[in-house]
Design a protein that fits this description.
Blueprint lengths: L7 H16 L2 H8 L7 H9 L18 H12 L3 H21 L2 H13 L4 E4 L15 E5 L2 E11 L7 E7 L10 E7 L4 E6 L11 E11 L3 E2 L5 H37 L1 E2 L2 E2 L4 H29 L4 H30 L10 H8 L9 H17 L27
Parallel strand pairs: 1-4
Antiparallel strand pairs: 2-3, 3-7, 4-5, 5-8, 6-7, 9-10
The structure holds flavin-adenine dinucleotide (FAD).
Flavin-adenine dinucleotide (FAD) binds next to strand 1, strand 3 and helix 11.
Length: about 425
């Protein structure tokens, strides 16, 4: 993050987060990648003990009353430990709690948010189903009313914290006859009889986060565990896409940063043809591009975070968040790719962690809404915004600034 853009409170918090980053034992990072630690509860307990999670929430619920700019800085710093650390940090505290803070009841905030931010409870977010993640509103998991409860049936897959979480934020169909945007309800589901973690995946990267398949079989969920309005999970989903995608983008920068640091040092010491390899432009220009991409990515995170803090119009934020997620994740993947390239063969081994960073970051453009879905949203919002402007409202019509602009016979569109 650019120091001059951060408040004093944010800078003080960054020092605290860096202290946590120093605290993490090397073995924890390696054991997660080895799948020996399946879900890092010790890490989250420590983060909770230090009151580092959910810094933008009111103090009443365990936060620090700060803002999105500060949250983005925290996510970047935690990401330097490895992508999966920021992911488990983010899923419970920054996503699930965000939904409950914004849409839940005080009872839910007391019971689920406060203990999670203290590091005493763990949570997972359950959107994706085996039948598909991109088509979220096609959800087939169902919840049917029975007395004061709902009976939940269905499956979710690729859920970080499927192993490890104490409760789950689950989207389920509650009105099969309604239009997709009016058919879903969001529930808090405790780990209880009928909730089963079935399968942990052999992931390419981002290991150690308990990612698995969850099966819900006749799970009894009290009606008081509905988050937001019945049949209006759409509202919850909409606000969740900010922490989901902006948070993901911020942590991606943190996860890529060490790759550039390692590659910078390595190329300043490694010699070929009688000189250090950073003296070859073929090498140093890749480092230069990486530094530029990370700075540009961070600048984009900062302006988008400010747009959220300043309550800019929701549709503008929707486009900004989608652009940020796509641009930042693709830039960071390029940074990791360059780092490996300039290190030559050693970069491809586990002598340096660049190979793990590259494996981890591959996920960035797939999850929390694939980058194709981001492009779809950006295109929709852009066309809508642009075409809603009437020509008379424009400062000038640039298309008229051409020599033959008024040759009407040549302006053929069909
Ligand atoms: C390690 C890991 C952890 C995850 N953690 C979680 C989690 O904690 N909670 C959770 O709910 N989910 C989680 N996910 C799921 C993730 O968000 C989904 O994998 C992602 O949204 C894509 O969904 P899908 O895999 O079903 O792919 P699909 O939806 O089947 O998409 C397949 C391909 O088709 C493309 N595509 C689909 N629709 C369109 C379209 N309209 N236009 C253009 N292209 C399109 C996609 O971009 C993609 O390239 C995780 C995934 C992984 C791998």
């Amino acid at each position: 993050m650019f120091d001059h853009l951060l408040s004093d409170d944010a800078l003080a918090l960054r020092a605290e987060v860096r202290d946590l980053v120093k605290w993490v034992p090397r073995d924890m990072i390696l054991d997660m990648d080895r799948d020996r630690i399946r879900f890092p509860k010790d890490f989250l307990r420590e983060a909770g003990r230090r009151n580092l999670m959910g810094c933008r929430y009111p103090r009443q619920w365990g936060g620090r009353g700060l803002d999105w700019v500060t949250t983005a800085m925290v996510m970047e710093e935690v990401g330097t430990l490895g992508y999966i650390f920021a992911c488990v940090f983010g899923v419970g505290a920054e996503l699930v709690c965000d939904a409950i803070i914004q849409h839940g009841t005080d009872r839910q905030r007391e019971k689920y948010v406060k203990p999670l931010l203290r590091g005493d409870l763990f949570a997972a977010e359950c959107l994706t189903e085996p039948r598909g993640g991109s088509d979220f509103f096609g959800t087939t998991t169902t919840a049917v009313r029975q007395g004061d409860d709902y009976i939940l049936n269905g499956q979710k897959r690729f859920i970080v914290g499927a192993e490890g979480a104490d409760y789950f934020l689950v989207y389920a169909k509650t009105d099969p006859a309604a239009k997709p945007h009016e058919a879903l309800t969001c529930f808090i589901v405790d780990r209880s009889p009928g909730v089963e973690t079935r399968y942990l995946y052999n992931l390419m990267g981002c290991r150690g986060g308990g990612a698995g398949r969850l099966v819900f079989k006749d799970v009894r969920v009290p009606a008081e565990n509905i988050v937001g309005q019945f049949n209006n999970a759409y509202a919850v989903f909409n606000t969740m896409m900010i922490p989901e995608r902006l948070g993901t983008a911020a942590m991606t920068i943190g996860a890529a940063r060490p790759a550039l640091d390692i590659a910078t040092r390595y190329t300043s010491r490694r010699r070929a043809f009688g000189q250090t390899i950073n003296q070859f432009q073929g090498v140093s220009f890749q480092i230069a591009e990486s530094a530029m991409l990370l700075d540009a990515a961070r600048a984009m995170i900062f302006t988008t975070a400010r747009a959220v803090d300043d309550h800019c119009p929701p549709r503008f934020i929707r486009r900004q968040v989608s652009e940020t997620k796509k641009f930042v994740t693709e830039s960071c993947q390029k940074v990791a790719h360059h780092a490996m390239q300039v290190m030559g063969g050693i970069g491809y081994t586990d002598i340096f962690p660049v190979e793990r960073i590259l494996r981890d970051l591959r996920l960035a453009s797939i999850w929390t809404g694939s980058n194709e879905v981001m492009a779809m949203i950006i295109a929709n919002e852009w066309y809508r915004e642009q075409l809603s402007q009437k020509p008379a409202e424009l400062v000038r019509l640039p298309e008229e600034d051409a020599e033959s602009a008024f040759v009407a016979d040549e302006k053929i569109y069909e």
